[in-house]
Amino acid sequence: MAEHPALDDSVALWSAPAAERAGRPLLILLHGYGADEHDLFGLVPYLPPQFVVAALRAPLAPPFPAPGYSWYPIEGLDGRDATHVTDAASLVVDWIDAVSADSPVGLLGFSQGAAVALQAMRLQPERFAFAVNLSGYATPGALPGDAALAIRRPPVFWGRGTHDDVIPSFLVEHTVMWLPEHADLSGRLYQGLTHSVSEPELDDVRIFLDKQLEHIASDSKT
């Protein structure tokens, strides 16, 4: 069984220094398998500048010779074990709670990071304002927070490619059924896109995030 050490706060990348973060919404970036915190941080110029963006590093090292880091194992007898996804999401929640007590928080993940983002929302349905799921999936199995999440229905953007052959089809099929029941779902299937992110998808993500900023601003006035 894989162990999940605490997230290394010293390697987190921030779009703004500590003195400029107070009172601003926080967007957490969760990279995919074999990558690191630098991978999605390159998206910062494409994201609304109102967000303070933090890119985290996953806690596990994939088996040699795979590079980078992973949130949970996808190989071996316990590969894609739902408990490992939940453990990783718990670490993300703990890290966020330590750095942001009051600010609205959104999650943006790619592949494994997207699965962890959705799992974090299930752990704390009231904690997160929205999630962006890029080439990821919802983890099968029930969690105690699912009923509350289905009532709250936070906004979720799901983007994936027609030529993505990395995520198993049964996980895509599960997500197609699960997400509309638990979230205010928007998104798009991108023709010809593989297991990656395209410029049209980033344009759609930007539109989605701009809408979330409007909702956050509206909620702050009520």
Automatic annotation (TrEMBL):
InterPro entries: AB_hydrolase_fold (IPR029058), LYPA1-2/EST-like (IPR050565), PLipase/COase/thioEstase (IPR003140). It comes from Microbacterium terregens. SUPFAM superfamilies: alpha/beta-Hydrolases. Pfam families: Abhydrolase_2. GO terms for molecular function: hydrolase activity. Belongs to the AB hydrolase superfamily. AB hydrolase 2 family. Residues 21-211 form the Phospholipase/carboxylesterase/thioesterase domain. Keywords: Hydrolase. It comes from the Bacteria. This is Alpha/beta hydrolase.
